[in-house]
Amino acid sequence: MTLNWEQVIVHAEDPAGLGRWWAEALGWVEVYSDDDEFEIRPAPDVTPGLDFVRLNEAKKAKSRLHLDFRPEDQAAEVDRLLAHGARRVDIGQGEQPWVVLADPEGNEFCILGQRSA
Predict the structure, then answer these.
(1) Range in 58-62, 82-86, 108-112 with the lowest mean pLDDT
(2) What is the pLDDT of residue 117?
(3) What is the pLDDT of residue 116?
(4) What is the DSSP letter of 5?
(5) Highest averaged pLDDT of the listed ranges 14-28, 47-61, 86-100
(6) What is the 3-state secondary structure (H, E, C) of 32-79?
(7) What sign has the CA pseudo-torsion 86, 88, 89, 93?
């Protein structure tokens, strides 16, 4: 049996708004949208993607799953995402080589530093 990773589901109060935020942040494209769902991918036929699905309640606690990103320049990417509407969050990480940010609906994600050789 083979499994192919299709997408990550992200519950959102505003699927289109949050999906557009992430599409712009990642440079991805919209592949599907209706009133309750907004899906983005790196390219139309490339998976996995992110599928934002309406959930009519606010986020209540630390996310149990989050995304990690490793940019070429951590400081520049953090600055870019903060200017785009992300915010720094403290989830108890202490002093670490990564930076924890949250998207406009409070979903945490990390911007990692350089990979150790």
Answers:
(1) 58-62
(2) 62
(3) 72
(4) -
(5) 14-28
(6) EEECCEEEEECECCECCEEEEEECCCCCCCCCCCCEEECCCCHHHHHH
(7) positive
The dihedral through the CA atoms of 59, 63, 68, 73 has a sign that is positive
Residue with tokens 């989830």: 91
Q: Which CATH number is correct for 66-117, 3.10.180.10, 3.40.50.720, 3.40.640.10, 3.40.50.12780?
A: 3.10.180.10
C-alpha span between 90 and 79 (Å, rounded) = 17
Whole-model pTM: value is: 0.90
Residues in the chain: 117
Q: How far is CA 99 from the centre of its chain?
A: 14
pLDDT at 60: 83
